[in-house]
């Protein structure tokens, strides 16, 4: 994927990478956010309904190989699984369509984002940095929250620790657009739902867990049989906001099943592949188009800039 042609957007993306590294430290070879992760291989099988919504090849062929990355929040590569800062958890999925042809899903376990734009997110991170413990009130982050209630809502939203990466729902927070073979367009957001159901631990249960319990459990679970998720799409209705990741749609909106994700085991050459793979939040395939959400181009640039840094580490 290319960098955006907008120099200001590229500069903002570079500033965001630098600010994340200021908060979490520089860890060469790792992502500046969601640094700790695990890659699994698997297969996506579409539902019969998916092809009525989109002409994309992943919904119109019998199956597509996939790579999925589960991750923990923060840019700390060895953050303990018992640290609440590791929530929300992340899930990114790559659909391998052909040699050097793919489309990705990027999501996390909180169904919205704290800010609408990348510039606002940078302000958010700077306010956090400027508000260490002991800072007199009103702190910079308190002032930020007073102007950006969506950021306060994100911070206050429940983020329980799952019993397994395979027991949590993940949300694509940016809207995208399906285009059918008849050229009908439908705005939607991805949702990845575990067949095993959501299951969370209370604080006492988390304290009793090992620091690596999530990352130790997932390969064992995969070894006992495929880990299965259902790929869903929540469909927008007329008048719904489709260019703002801070705005959730009502749960009354239709949610349709797009297919099944079967995850079968760890990716070979795992450490190298973690450094190499760069996920792309922009679909870049016929049949799935981006919305006007300003976070899409920004996130793609951030991922590419940090990915190039990561790949350069020997």
Gyration radius (Cα, Å) is 19 Å
β-strand number: 12
Helix share bin? 25-40%
Mean model confidence by pLDDT: 97
Low-confidence stretches: none
The H/E string reads HEHEEEHHHEEEEEHHEEHEH
Distance N to C terminus: 22 Å
Sheet of most strands: 10 strands, antiparallel
* Main structural class: alpha+beta
Which percent range describes the beta-strand content?
25-35%
Shape: globular
The helix tally amounts to: 9
What keywords describe this structure?
alpha+beta; ten-stranded antiparallel β-sheet; two-stranded antiparallel sheet; 9 helices; 29% helix; globular
What does this structure look like?
There is one protein chain. The longest helix has 18 residues, at 7-24. This protein is 29% helix and 25% strand. The protein is globular and about 60 Å long. The strands form two sheets. Strands 1, 2, 3, 4, 6, 7, 8, 10, 11 and 12 form a ten-stranded antiparallel β-sheet that branches. The chain has a two-stranded antiparallel sheet with strand order 5-9. The protein has nine helices and twelve strands. The model has no long low-confidence stretch (mean pLDDT 97). It has helices spanning 7-24, 50-53, 118-129, 140-147, 149-156, 203-207, 213-223, 270-276, 295-312; strands at 37-46, 64-71, 90-98, 101-108, 161-162, 170-171, 176-179, 185-194, 200-201, 227-235, 255-266, 288-290. A hairpin with a 5-residue loop joins strand 7 (176-179) and strand 8 (185-194). The two termini are 22 Å apart. The chain is α+β, with helices and mostly antiparallel strands and 314 residues long.
